[in-house]
Amino acid sequence: MKTGFKALLQFRWQRLGAAAALLGLAVAAVPASATPGSCTDPIVFGTTISESGPFSTLADHWRKMSEVFAEEINATGGIMVKSCNKKLPLKFVIYDDQSVPSTAVGLYERMATVDKVDFFVGPDWSSLGGPVPPVAEKHKIPMVAANVATPAMYERGLKYLWGTPYPVVPLWSARYFDMVSKMTPKPQTIYFITQDNPVMKGITAFWSQKAAAQGIKVIGTDGFPSDLKDFTGLISKVRAAKPDIIYISSFDGVSVPLVQQMRQLKVHAMDVHHAMLTGSLRRQVGNDLEGMTGELPWYSGMKGPYSELVDKVLARSNIDMFDYIFTMGRIGSYLTMVQAIERAGAVDREKVKEVLTKGTFKSPAGDIVFDERGFPTTNGAYTLQMQNGKSSIVWPPEVATGKVVWPSPTWR
Fold first, then answer.
1. CA 317, CA 51: separation in Å to the nearest integer?
2. In CATH, what number is assigned to the domain containing residue 55?
3. Range picked from 22-31, 218-227, 277-286 for highest mean pLDDT
4. Total structural domains in the chain?
5. What are the DSSP calls for 141-206, one per residue?
6. Alpha-carbon gap, residue 208 to 186, rounded angstroms
7. I need a surface site. Which of 15, 51, 147, 168 has the fewest CB within 10 A?
C-alpha cells in the first residue's frame, strides 16, 4: 500500500511539474504589454481574426495582411503623435478567435488586461459583434470593428464602438439599382430569393422596397434554409413567375447548389444578381456564374486616399479583393484608427474616442462617416459582372473596368 501511495504521489507531482512548465511557456509567449500614453513604446492594436472555424475561408490571409500593414506604416516612420513630437511604430497583437463568440470575448479580455493593448480593431461578423464590444465598453478601449454589418449591433448605446463593414445594407445595391434604372430594355419585375440569415433578410427587406419605389414590381420574395440542397421547388416557382431580374440574397457557399440548379433547369432572366458574388463562388460553380452581377466594395487599381498603401499591402499579402471581399472592412478599421490617433495627437483612449465620435475618415473606397451610433453611413459597393470568366466593374461608368452587357446573354 505504501509503495502504491508513493507512486501515486510521485505521479501527481510529475503532473504538477508538467503543468507548471506549460504555464511558464504560456507566460513566456504573452506579447509585451503596451504602455498607454507612452512616447517610446509602439502603439499596439489588439485584434482577433477567424483563422479557424467556419469563417476562416473569408479571413485566412488577414494575419499576414495585418503584419504587412504595420510594416508599411512603419516604413514611413510610423504613426505621427503630435504630443510626442514624433512618429511611433505600429504593432499588432493577434489571436485566432476560431469563429467562436465565447472564445473571442475571452481573448479581448486578455488583450485588455494582460497585453494591455492601446486600441481594439476588429472583430468581424455579427455573431462576434454582439458579445465582444461590451468588453471594450467595460475597459473603455475604443474599438473600430471590421465586418460587423448588422445595424442592431450599434443600437445598444455603446460609447466605445464604431464599425467599418463594406458594404452596409442601406448602400449594398445602390449602384446596381442606379445602373438598372438606366438600362434598355427596362426591367419591369424582380424576384428575391433569400437565405434564412439576419443580414441577408435585412438586404432583401430593404432593397425589395427600393425596387418597388423605383417602379420595378416585386413578384416574389421566397426564402430558403441555409442547409437546403434541393432547390427544384423554389426554382419552379421562379420560372413560372418569369421575372426580369432574379436577386439572390445569400452567402456565397450556401447558394452553390442554387446557382447550379438554376442553370440545369434553364432559368431565364434579363439579369441574375447575387448580393455576395465572390471568387469562392466562382471556383465552385465555374462557368455557371457567367453573366451574373454582384457587388464589390473596392478593387485594386482604383485611385483614392491610401490606395497606394492598400495596393502594396494586398499585393504583399497575396489577397485578391474578389476572393476576399470583406478585406476592405478590415483595412478600413485599421486606417480609421490610425487617422484617429493622428488627429487626437496622443496615444490617449479618451481623446481618440472623441475624434472617432465626430470625425470623417479617408479610405480608398471613399470617405467613412459614422452616425451617432458608430455605424457608417457611406460604405457602399461597386457593381461587377462576370464577363469571360473574369470579374469586371461595370458601374458607375466613371470607374468601370468593363461595359455592362444587358440583358445578360447567358441568362437569355
1. 15
2. 3.40.50.2300
3. 218-227
4. 2
5. --EEESS---GGGG-S--SSEEE--SS-GGGTTHHHHHHHHT-SSPP-EEEEEEESSHHHHHHHHH
6. 17
7. 15
The β-bridge relationship of strands 382-387 and 390-395 is: antiparallel
Amino acid present at 68:
V
Instruction: Classify residue 272 as left (phi > 0), alpha (psi -120 to 50) or beta.
Output: beta
Residue 358 lies in a domain: yes
Give the per-residue pLDDT at 151: 87
Asked whether the beta carbons of 114 and 137 are under 8 A apart, the reply is no
Do 393 and 358 lie in one domain? The reply is no
Q: In sequence order, what are the beta bridge partners of 93?
A: 46
Whether residue 90 lies inside any domain: the answer is yes
Question: Residues 252-311: pLDDT tens digits?
Answer: 889 999 999 999 999 999 999 999 999 889 999 999 999 999 999 998 878 889 999 999
Residue 398 shares a structural domain with residue 344: no
In whole angstroms, what is the distance from residue 287 CA to residue 407 CA?
Answer: 17
Question: Rounded CA gap, 378 and 77, in Å?
Answer: 30
Q: In this structure, are strands 43-49 and 90-96 parallel, antiparallel, or unpaired? A: parallel
DSSP 347: S
- The per-residue pLDDT for range 332-378, each reduced to its tens digit, is 999 999 999 999 999 999 999 999 998 899 999 999 999 999 999 99
What's the whole-number mean pLDDT along residues 67-81? 98
What's the chain's average pLDDT?
90
